[in-house]
Amino acid sequence: MWQQAGRYAIKLLDLFCGVGGASAGYAEAGFEVTGIDLKHGKRYPYTYKRGNVMALDLDFLQQFDVIHASPPCQTYSITQHLRNAQGKSTSKLDLLKPVRDMLLQSGKPYIIENVKGAPLLDPVQLCGSSFGLTVRRHRLFESNLPLTGSLCNHTVRPVGVYGSMRDEIPGGGKTADTIEQARQAMGIEWALWGELVEAIPPAYTNFIGLQIMALLNKSYPQNRKTCGQHAQAPFKLSTI
Ligand SMILES: C[S@@+](CC[C@H](N)C(=O)[O-])C[C@H]1O[C@@H](n2cnc3c(N)ncnc32)[C@H](O)[C@@H]1O
Q1: Which residues' Cβ are closer than 6 Å to ligand 1?
Q2: Rounded CA gap, 108 and 47, in Å?
Q3: Would you say the pTM of this structure is higher than 0.85?
Q4: pLDDT digits over 35-53, tens only?
């Protein structure tokens, strides 16, 4: 647990936490992490609450210093377009805007993660290749803190962790041959295939989390973005 002069723990709430890929990166960066998801959470490694994110109230959100959200992204993902082309259907939830509204209302530093093509505001992009991973898995991150993205380094043949294992993808791609290969590619050793497919590598949120830690260690008002939709009250840390 990260502490400042023994007085503070930086509490991060991970909304739509899934199996905890994002949570793990934040925990490695020093945050005390709590995750919320509709699923059972049996393999989630941190404090877990099962529930509907969209039913949370602002008082609950106020307990945390930083809030991350990975709302379902089927509407925008390339794999969804592939499924549509194959005549398969999945739900088309679009929680992005209601989630952003909730986070803005909370007044907390926030991060929203989603796939390329999702309408995030002024996002940065991360790629697995910049962290030495064999997945590329481009993901966007929106925040009301000034974050830096990563540059792609596409030099090795990627391992796909989407769809089904051992799948040849039209256009030359290939998904992982084994669950072990998929876990290693993502850096998530505890997840099953269906969970890996939805997760983001902990390396991404470790990178983001360390930036946020550095920003929170400076004076809070100066770290705020001031452009229209990101305007916020000064951030405070919860005292323990
Ligand atoms: C893209 S996955 C998140 C993956 C996670 N960020 C990770 O790295 O492991 C989206 C998750 O949202 C959850 N979910 C969808 N709607 C929800 C809701 N209304 N409340 C809570 N969880 C929800 C799903 O169960 C799923 O686990």
Answers
A1: 16-22, 36-39, 52-54, 70, 72-73, 198-200
A2: 20
A3: yes
A4: 999 999 999 999 999 999 9
Q: What CA–CA distance (Å, rounded) separates 163 from 127?
A: 19
228 CA to centre of ligand 1 in angstroms: 28
Distance between CA atoms of 181 and 174, rounded to whole angstroms? 12
Crossing angle of helices 21-28/202-216, nearest 10°?
A: 40
Q: Which CATH class is domain 11-230?
A: alpha beta
User: Phi/psi at 126 (nearest 5 deg)?
Assistant: -120, 150
CB 223 within 8 A of CB 146: yes
Residue 224 has pLDDT above 70, yes or no: no
How many alpha carbons fall within 13 Å on the CB side of residue 37? 28
Minimal-distance CA residue to ligand 1 atom 3: 18
Measured between alpha carbons, how far is 20 from 36 in angstroms, rounded to an integer? 10
Q: What share of the chain is helix, strand, coil (3-state, %, to 5)?
A: 30, 15, 55
Q: Could you tell me the residue ranges of all domains in the chain?
A: 11-230
- The DSSP annotation for 213-224 comes to HHHHTS-TGGGS
β-bridge pairing 139-143 and 110-115: antiparallel
